[in-house]
Design goal:
Layout: E1 2-9, E2 14-21, E3 26-30, H1 36-45, E4 49-54, H2 60-63, H3 66-73, E5 77-78, H4 85-89, H5 91-97, E6 117-120, E7 123-129, E8 138-142, E9 147-151, E10 154-155, E11 158-159, H6 169-180, E12 188-191, E13 197-198, H7 199-205
Parallel strand pairs: 3-4, 4-5, 9-12
Antiparallel strand pairs: 1-2, 2-3, 6-7, 7-8, 8-9, 10-11, 12-13
């Protein structure tokens, strides 16, 4: 079985998720925005071996700790989509602007595209390219767990901001309705901030995409 545990990191309380295979104890970390020592302690506590970094997008609160973590443990960086290259290039400036510890630059080991997959132990998750919040935003979906790690595309009762450079509101709505909803009303999603919800609940009650 795949398991996961969400750890809010940085002053932005970004939901960094540890995902692991119960059998092999192999783990990936989704969006290590910061607080690296805390994340490593969480892994040690569960006797997990961190093998990969997966990124939904390259905003500072999601990607700020990536370079440090990858260098410390010699880890591959998987994602996001190439559309977020300019956000990666701007991480040092982002860290200064938002009062984060200095963020290093990195080059993804593997860029992700719509329809790709990522593998952890014997488990496979699907990748969907969901632009709008950022042009290179991706989502990780596990049909096995009925869980989707959606970054800042969708929140409980809200949606991602589109007022950052290269944000696009129409694209974001299309990403949600065309790429998230088909995953099923009973799929639980882990957003980049705040509590979990289900796609079905958001389809009914979210003021931005309810009824779509």
């Amino acid at each position: 079985m795949l398991q996961y545990h969400t750890v809010p990191v940085t002053a932005f309380q970004q939901n960094c998720s540890l995902v692991w295979c119960d059998e092999s104890r192999q783990a990936a970390v989704i969006d290590p925005g910061g607080d690296i020592d805390r994340l490593l302690a969480e892994l040690d506590q569960r006797d997990l071996t961190l093998e990969q970094i997966w990124l939904t997008h390259a905003h500072i609160d999601h990607a700020g700790g990536t370079a440090e973590l990858a260098k410390r443990l010699n880890l591959p960086i998987i994602g996001p989509h190439p559309g977020d290259q300019f956000w990666i290039d701007g991480l040092p400036q982002q860290s200064q602007m938002f009062g984060f510890p200095p963020a290093g630059l990195f080059s993804p080991t593997r860029w992700l595209h719509d329809g790709d997959t990522v593998t952890l132990g014997r488990h496979t998750l699907q990748v969907r390219h969901c632009p709008g919040h950022t042009p290179g935003h991706v989502v990780f979906y596990s049909p096995e767990m009925k869980r989707a790690f959606v970054g800042d595309v969708l929140f409980a009762g809200s949606i991602g901001r589109t007022d950052f450079p290269q944000g696009n509101h129409a694209q974001l709505i299309a990403s949600i309705t065309e790429r998230l909803w088909p995953m099923g009303d009973d799929t639980v999603f882990i957003p980049g901030h705040g509590p979990e919800s289900t796609f079905g609940r958001e389809r009914q009650s979210n003021p931005y995409v309810g009824g779509t």
